[in-house]
Amino acid sequence: MKGLYVHIPFCLKKCRYCDFNSAVMPDSIQEEYVNAIICEMAEYRKTEVDTVYIGGGTPTVLKTDLLKSVIDGIKNNFILLPNTEFTVEMNPKTADSKKLKMLFNTGVNRLSIGVQSFCDEELKELGRVHSGNDAKDAIKLAKEAGFENISIDLMSAIPKQTLKSFAKTLETAILQNPDHISCYSLILEEGTPLFDDVKSGRTVLCDEETERDIYEYAVKTLEANGYRQYEISNFAKDGKASRHNMKYWTMQEYVGVGLSAHSFLENVRFSNTDDFKNYISHNFRSGNKEVLTKSDMMSEFAFLGLRMTEGISETVFSEKFREDIFEVFKKPLEKFIKTGFLVHKNGRIFLSKEGISVSNQIMCEFLL
Ligand code: SF4
Fold first, then answer.
1. What radius of gyration do the chain's Cα atoms show?
2. Does the beta carbon of 18 sit less than 6 angstroms from any atom of ligand 1?
3. 17, 153, 198, 281: which sits with the fewest CB atoms below 10 Å from its CB?
């Protein structure tokens, strides 16, 4: 079954590390953009989906009635199957009870809140617009609005972050009792203010050893508190793994609507324009289109599958591609199973604990 991603490229303020296609824009432009995405949705009329993810940017920057128009546009153009997982991303600073109640009442059943850290000094380094207390308030408001599936994003390798400060953030996070926690490392992107500061020596990044210690601490602490690691950077309580993100890791089809959104349909990946003016003039596509060959598909299936702790099923691989995975990836499988970085058990192949720490090198060898 397909998933739907809708991109809202607006933010309250640009974070210092962010190179996403997002910007601060006035309400009138936001309205024009919402009209354009609803128009693009009409191209997919009657497509059935069972996950919806409105991301950005910060979708909750939109005024309540505009955000509702986006949701109505989705419901009017797509067929949402029973039990659809419907997620909206939210910045803690944009949480207000009226908006949250509207989201809940219109069928949004999952919130993904960009917390990053509960330490105000680290949030300042990142240029986030909110404080740790704002994040706690946002989670509380979301629960009061009725949400029973709340995910929070945390970040590691933030400048000035230590194992101790991360442990405090994680302790605070667990006390808020979210259902799902994503924990990604900060990636330094060229062209961002943070990149320039690091390059000029004004800011010093967290060292690799601390980053490794933080990751190990996060896995151990989250597992001990009932959050099962189901992907390299994602942890969830029972039944609360992100069904939408699982679609990306298991190579299922998805439709992407909005500025610079990507779609993957019938083995073809194509993207929308990343030029805002073009997009609001209803010139939606970028023209970039990639037809995946069988080799591409097998490679992606393998290295995306290895991101998940349950790994790849031999049977699913052979049903999907009519090939034996041990024939197709003979060399890397033999090598990494022998060195203990991969485990082959009960018809599945997955990364060992040691393998996770060198996962990028392992995945590279699955390119055909
Ligand atoms: S809120 Fe998210 S999308 Fe917006 S600037 Fe910050 S990191 Fe980028």
1. 21
2. yes
3. 281
Judge if the beta carbon of residue 11 lies within 6 A of ligand 1. yes
* 3-state SS, one letter per residue, for 6-40: EEECECCCCCCCCCCCCECCCHHHHHHHHHHHHHH
Atom of ligand 1 nearest to the CA of 11: 4
**pLDDT, tens only, 48-72:** 999 999 999 999 999 999 999 999 9
Closest atom, ligand 1, to C-alpha of 91: 1
| pTM score, whole prediction | 0.96
3 state SS of 328? helix
Distances (CA, A) of 82 to 50, 85, 180, 323: 7, 9, 22, 34
Q: Whole-angstrom Cα distance, residue 83 to residue 244?
A: 13
Q: Which residue has the least CA distance to atom 2 on ligand 1?
A: 57
Q: What is the pLDDT of residues 4-54, one digit of tens each?
A: 999 999 999 999 999 998 999 999 999 999 999 999 999 999 999 999 999
The two tokens of residue 154 are 């945390």
Cβ neighbourhood burial of 239 (10 Å; 0-12, 13-18, 19+): exposed
Distance 124 CA to ligand 1 centre (A): 14
* Atom 7 of ligand 1, residue of closest alpha carbon: 18
From the CA of 57, give the closest atom in ligand 1: 3
The structure tokens listed for 7 are 């991109």
d(CA 222, CA 236): 9
Read off the pLDDT band of 287 (50, 70, 90).
Answer: confident
Neighbours of 107 (CB within 10 A): 13
Q: Is the CB of 9 under 6 A from ligand 1?
A: no
